[in-house]
Write a structure and sequence with these properties.
This protein has 393 residues and is mostly beta strands. Helices cover 3% and strands 64% of the residues.
Length: 393
Amino acid sequence: MAAMCGALFILPAHQAAAQQQEEGLKLYGGIGWGYDDNLLRVPKDRPAFGGKRSDRWRQAEAGVVYNKRISRQRVALVAKVSKVNFDHFKQLDYDGRDLQATWLWELGNKFDGQAGAMYERTLAPYTDFFSDERNLRERRREWFDAGWKMHPSWKLRAGVNRDRYEYELQRQRFNNRTEKAYETELLYTPRSGSSVGLVARRVEGDYPVRRPRPGAPTDDFTQDELKVRVNWYATGTTTLQALGGYVRRDQPSFGDGKTSGFNGRLNATYQPRGKMTYTASVWREFAPIESTIVSYTLNKGASVGAAWAATGKIKVDANVAYEKRAYNARSAFEGSGELDDSLRTASLRATWQVRRKVTVSSSWINQKRSGARSLNLVGFDANTVMVNANVLF
């Protein structure tokens, strides 16, 4: 949720792949236009950069999508380049990159999994960072997952992944980090199709650049989790998905250095007969923050949404979300009085499938933050309007 601003400037590469399930090589192209009345998320009580809060931008993108099944294996590749130009804040202009490769593999009747890698280059969000300088963020991710079907109803799964983030601005390089995660799961799937699994996971975070405060503790962390994963088809119209359990986090710069308790997320989907689908989520989990002062927050939130299939070619989605973020910096942090804030987000999106391979969409997003003055975060209000068109051919 906190990265909403950054999401305005990208169309994830996998979205293009999701629009095209046919096998073979396809070309992708898209254009977009956007307007934001507070592009840099300037707080209410601060003057705007150059006396200007709003801006417009144009986006053009092109790429290729490849999807192929070879015997029992499937390979999916997406490569996209984009160019974004702003009318006023021209220093933010950038060339984006989205690359992703996934191999869904099978070995005999009992072993399967996937391996993949991705690279993304985009403009980082300004939600928690007060600046008018361009700050590009590069993300690299590699993962491998393998499952062994021990019994028709039982499966043992293990996986590993690595995420690495790097920031262009010197003032943001304290957020450069590498996170490695190791996970095992014992999964039970009865004939009903629902499933329940016991998940053990360990995450190791490495922050190579220390924050420039005298005696500042390292942001490096380890996090151990033991959770239950549930996918329950409660009725023919209702599905519940949950992942929650005990988490222990060791991070010198967060709280007392050791934090433990319940973390989890619950998603519900209700799809009655007709044209409506309803969704709801609640969560309590740790999340990184792109701030110059702190690196992580403990977030508690909820969201509700609805999707309306107005016709066979037109779909409308609406969503509202509320999230409270607790920073809980160490007591040694100077001025650590008010250490939480909240984000409220509302969005409305309409999608028109003009032709089988041509899609036009428009959206509106409102984002509000209450702010935490101790962390130099003051409340803001921002509205965004976007129009996009893309084609696969």
